[in-house]
Write a structure and sequence with these properties.
Elements: E1 2-8, E2 11-16, E3 27-35, H1 38-45, E4 59-67, E5 80-84, H2 93-96, E6 120-123, E7 128-131, H3 137-140, H4 143-155, E8 163-167, H5 171-182, E9 186-191, H6 194-202, E10 207-210, H7 215-224, E11 230-235, H8 240-249, E12 250-258, H9 272-278, E13 281-284, H10 290-301, E14 311-316, H11 320-328, E15 334-338
Parallel strand pairs: 8-9, 8-11, 9-10, 11-12, 12-13, 14-15
Antiparallel strand pairs: 1-2, 3-4, 3-6, 3-15, 4-5, 5-7
Helix pairs in contact: 4-5, 4-10
The structure holds zinc ion (2 copies).
Length: 341
């Protein structure tokens, strides 16, 4: 089979390797599509390091081709699946308390990590979420990022009829937008990129705010919320200005989630007395647990969230390097790899 290996920063090669052998507890999946997320982009640029060579890819979908003899679940060959490629041990305190995205054993040596940029992939049964055959597999590959948005909105306890500000109209901002609209929020999206703001409007944003004019953005957000500020705010952009806007825009009882990760350690410009007086909550979210993943596969399967307009390009596996470059260009939403196997 073919697989794309990251051998060093900016160095991806597609090679022929042995097809994985299905162990007794494994499910072998013929991969269909894999999205190129920020993690893959940072591994490629070298901002994040795992080990080399590594097969990147964690937003994968495919079709089950073989089940190990000890697989006891209802999975069957031919099932279409979305793959949750994190390792969850199910017995550490994080897993047992519903936070398996923080599983203490998820990066233990010797485990399979990532691996979506390949024609075949071995998974454990708990990593293969069956989706109906009428959900296109390129859309099923969005289960992971949509799941991360569901977790993020859960962390701020978004309620029907609330105002939500999403800072950053990249792919994750847009997926938050779609999920939040489904949950009944009025959504304001801010970004410095005018064409992305137009796209946000097209995708259903109730209001958009041009963040390129600094403090005026906060005034606009206040004007949109009877001068109260927003009930919830999700920061999907790592720009320093985004943190200032977030801190200045939350209402009494406002909840703020830092969704983005940072290469440095910026401080939130929010003084403690305001935090006290607003009874504000500040949280972060990273990844998703099983429930989030399950719900993501459901909303995609039901057609409640349609991600067609977020697919900016589909590249064959052979052109994986080019595809990652396109994802890094900043002018795309999601770039997907299509496997041929
Ligand atoms: Zn992802
Ligand atoms: Zn665990």
């Amino acid at each position: 089979m073919k697989a794309a290996f990251l051998k060093a920063p900016q160095h991806i090669t597609v090679e022929d390797v042995e097809k994985p052998v299905t162990g007794p507890g494994d499910i072998l999946v013929r991969a269909a599509y894999c999205g190129i997320c920020t993690l893959e982009q940072r591994l490629y640029t070298g901002e994040r390091k795992l080990y080399y060579p590594v097969i990147p890819g964690h937003e994968a979908s495919g079709i089950i081709v073989e089940l190990g003899g000890e697989v006891k679940t209802q999975h069957q060959a031919g099932d279409h699946v979305a793959l949750d490629l994190v390792n969850r041990c199910h017995i550490c305190p994080a897993c047992l308390s519903g936070n398996s995205n923080m599983c203490e054993n998820r990066f233990k040596k010797g485990q399979r990590v990532l691996g979506g940029f390949a024609e075949y992939i071995l998974v454990r049964p708990d990593q293969a979420y069956v989706v109906p055959p009428d959900l296109p597999l390129e859309k099923a590959a969005f289960s992971e990022p949509v799941a991360c948005c569901i977790r993020s909105l859960k962390k701020v306890s978004l309620k029907m009829g609330e105002n939500l500000l999403i800072i950053g109209a990249g792919p994750m901002g847009m997926m938050h937008l779609k999920a939040a609209l489904l949950m009944g929020a009025r959504v304001i999206v801010s970004d410095i990129n005018k064409s992305r703001l137009e796209d946000a409007r097209t995708m259903g944003a109730d209001a958009v705010v041009d963040a390129s004019n600094g403090g005026r953005a906060v005034e606009e957000i206040k004007a949109l919320t009877e001068n109260r500020g927003v009930d919830c705010c999700i920061v999907t952009s790592p720009a320093p200005q985004a943190l200032q806007t977030a801190a200045d825009s939350i209402a009494v009882n406002g909840r703020l989630n830092i969704y983005t990760s940072y290469n440095d350690k910026p401080m939130l410009p929010l003084d403690m007395n305001s935090l006290h007086r607003l009874e504000a909550l500040v949280t972060g979210s990273e990844g998703r647990n099983e429930e989030d993943f399950y719900r993501a596969t459901r909303v995609l399967s039901f057609g409640k969230i349609d991600v067609a307009d977020l697919i900016s390009g589909i590249y064959p596996l052979d052109r994986a390097g080019e595809a990652v470059e396109a994802a890094l260009s900043g002018s795309t939403y999601r770039i997907l790899l299509k496997m041929e196997g």
